[in-house]
Write a structure and sequence with these properties.
The complex is a heterodimer. Chain A contains twelve helices and 14 strands. By secondary structure, chain A is an alpha/beta fold. In chain A, the strands form three sheets. A seven-stranded mixed sheet of chain A has the order 3-2-4-5-7-6-12, with helices on both faces. In chain A, strands 9-11-10-13-14 form a five-stranded mixed sheet, sandwiched between helices. Chain A has a two-stranded antiparallel sheet with strand order 1-8. In chain A, strand 13 (264-268), helix 10 and strand 14 (296-300) form a beta-alpha-beta unit. In chain A, helix 3 packs parallel to helix 4 (100-107). Chain A starts with 10 loop residues before the first strand and ends in a 29-residue tail after the last helix. Chain B has a single domain, classed as Thiamin diphosphate (ThDP)-binding fold, Pyr/PP domains (Rossmann fold, 3-Layer(aba) Sandwich). Chain B has helices at 7-30, 47-54, 70-75, 80-87, 121-135, 153-164, 193-198, 212-227, 259-266, 270-275, 280-303, and strands at residues 62-64, 141-146, 169-175, 178-179, 182-183, 204-207, 233-238. Chain B has a five-stranded parallel sheet, sandwiched between helices. The longest helix of chain B is centred in the N-terminal third of the chain and has 24 residues, at 7-30. Chain B starts with 6 loop residues before the first helix and ends in a 16-residue tail after the last helix. Classes of the chains: A alpha/beta, B alpha/beta. Chain A binds chain B through residues 60, 65-66, 68, 70-84, 86, 101-102, 105-106, 110-121, 150-151, 153, 174-175, and chain B through 64, 93-99, 103, 105-107, 112-113, 115, 117, 120-132, 134, 153-154, 157-158, 160-161, 164, 314-319.
Chain lengths: 361, 319
Amino acid sequence: MLNDRPHNGGRLLRYVDALREAVAQEMERDPRVFVFGLDVDDHKAIQGSTLGLQAQFGRDRVFNTPLSEDAMTGVGIGAAMAGLRPIHVHIRMDFLMLCMNQLVNMAAKAHYMYGGAFRIPLVVRSMIGKSWGQGAQHSQGLHAMFMHVPGLKVVAPSNAYDAKGCMIAAIRDDNPVIFVEHRLLYPMEAYVPEAPYAVEFGRARVCTRGNDITIVGISNMLIECLRAQELLSEEGVHAEVIDPISLTPLDAATIAESAIRTGRLLVVDTAWTACGASAEILARVAEAAGGDRPIAMARMGFAPTTCPPSPVLEAEFYPNPATIAAKAYSMARQDAPAWTPKPERAALSRDRPDVRFRGPF
Amino acid sequence: MNTPCTAEDLVRIYGKLRLIRRAEEEIANVYPTDKIKSPVHLSIGQEAVSVGVCDVLRPDDVIAPTYRCHAAYLAKGGDLNAMLAELYGKDAGCARGKGGSMHLVDPRNYILGASAVVGTTIPIAAGYALALKREGRGRAVVAFFGDGGTEEGVFYETLNFAALHRLPALFVCENNFYAIHTPIEKRWATRQLCERVRSFGIPARLIENSDVFEIRQHAAESIAAIRSGNGPVFLEIHTYRWREHVGPGEDYDAGYRSRDELRRWQDHDPVAVVGALLDPSVREKIDSDIEASIAAAFRFAEDAAWPASGELFAHVYAD
C-alpha cells in the first residue's frame, strides 16, 4: 500500500495537494503550461487543487473563464495546436457533456485526421462527486465514454502518489488526456516524493497479493476494494487487488495474468457497468485468457438508476466494502453459505478517517 | 484609407481567383470517374471571400477554414498537389490521406485543419489567437465560417471570450444564405447578424456585393486594427454557392432555389470582373500557367502512392 510506507523520502500529502504540487512544478519547468476553467482562481480554488497558482504564475497562465464549456474546450485545443500545453479544469465530470463535440470530434481526431500536422497536448481535469446529496448531475462517472474513442487517454489515479505522477505524465503527454479525479479522494493522504516524477500510463499496480480472487478497483473504488480485501482476508479469502491507474491505455495483461492465476475476477467501477470500464476489462481478460480455464467474472458499479440525493437511497446506489466483500466471497467460496461483513466493520478503514464529506460541494 | 492595388496585386488576386475556380471545375469534371475518394464541397462562386481576406495576411498569420475549404486553403498558399493527393486518398496528401476534402491542413502555411462539424473550429481559432496574443508578435488568426455556423452556441461563446480577452482574431462569416438546402429565412429570427455581434463590443461590418477589392479593403483595415491590439473584428460577407452543397453538380432543379438567383451573382462573377481588368495577353499567360499547374497536380495525385497499410494506426496518438 502506497500510504503505508514512504516512497523515495516522500512525505504524507493529500491527494488534492499532490495535484496542485504536480501542476505547480510543471508550470515552473515549462512556460507553455497554463491552467484555465471556471473558478480556478476564486477563493475556493477547485477544493484547493489550484490554490496559489495564480499568485505564483500570474493571470496569463491561471485564469477563470466564462462557463462556455464547449468554446473553452475549443480554446484549449487551439492553444495546444499553437504549441501551448493547457490544463482545462472542471469541478464536476458531468460538465464534460458540454465539451463532447470538441473532445470527441476535434481533440481525439486532430492528430490523425491532419496527418500528424498538429498535436493536442491538452489535459482535461474533472472530478466525480459523491455523497451529501450530489444527486443526478454531480455524481456521474463517465470515463467509459472517453475510453470508447481512439485518440484520447483516460487516467483515474486512486491515491496522492499516482495523482501527482499521473498529472505530471499527463501534462508532458502530447495527446489529450482525460484526468479523472474523485471528490472523496481529495483529503486522503499518501507518501509523495517532493521531486517531480511521472507515473507511466498503461501499467497497472498490484496492490495486494492473493491467489483466491482478483479484484480490480477504479478510482475511489480501489480504496473500497482494499477495505473489502482486509475483511476477506480475516475470513481466509486472499484477494489480489489491482489498480489499473490508467484506463486508456489499459494494462489488460497484468489483470489477465492475475485473473488466469486466481480463476476469478471482480471489477468494481465508480460508474455504471453497462458498456463501462468494468465491461471492457472483463472483455479484454476474457479475450486474453483464451479459454484454457474458465474464469468466474463479475462486475460492480453504480446501480442502474439515476443517483438520488436522499442518503437512504444513495447508500444503495454505490458498491461499498461490505457488498464488494460479500460478492468476492460468494465467488471464491461457491459452496459456502453466503457471508456479509458486519456493517460496523465495513467502514472504509480502521486506520483512515471516514472520508464522507459534508457539503456544500 | 484605400488599400492600394498595384498591377502586381491585380495579377496575384486574379491568379488566386482563377486557380481556385479552375481547380474546382476540374475536380467536378474528374469526380464522375470516382478517382476522387472524398465528398467535395465546392467553393465555386465564393472564391472572393477567401482571396480578398487572405491577400492581406502575412505568411505567418493563421486561418481556420470550414469544411468548404478548398478556396481558403489555396488562397492562403496551400499546395495544390498536396490538396488533390488528399482528395485522391494518397500518402502525399496534405493530411496523408487521413483527412480528405473536408479536413485540408497545412501547418507550414498556418492553415489549421478544417472540420466537418459546423462551428467547431471557431473556438479553436480563438485558442490559437490566445497563444498569439501571448506571443506578442502582431500575428492574427482568421476564423472562416458560414451563416449556419453562426447558429451554433459555440459561436456566441467564442465571440464573448474573444472580446473579453481582446484576442487578435478576425471572424469572417461567409453568408451564402443556405445551410445545406435550408434557406436563411427558415433559420434566422432576424437578419441583424452584425448587430448581434456588436453587442459583444466587437466592430462588425456587412459586405453585400462580394466584391473582392471591397473585401480586401475591409480585411486590411480589420487586420490592422487587430494587429494594433484592439481585439477581434467581425465581417459578414454575402456570397453565393453556385454548385450543390456537396458534390460536383448543380441543383437548381431541386426546387429550393432558383437559377435566377444564381444569375444575379454570376452577373458580377469576381473571376470575370477581375480578369477583365487585366491586359488580355497578361491574362492569357496566367490562365495557361494555371491550366498547366492543375494538369500537373492531377497527374501528381494520380501517380502518388497509396498509404502503406501500417498507416491505418499511425497518428492515432502522437509519440
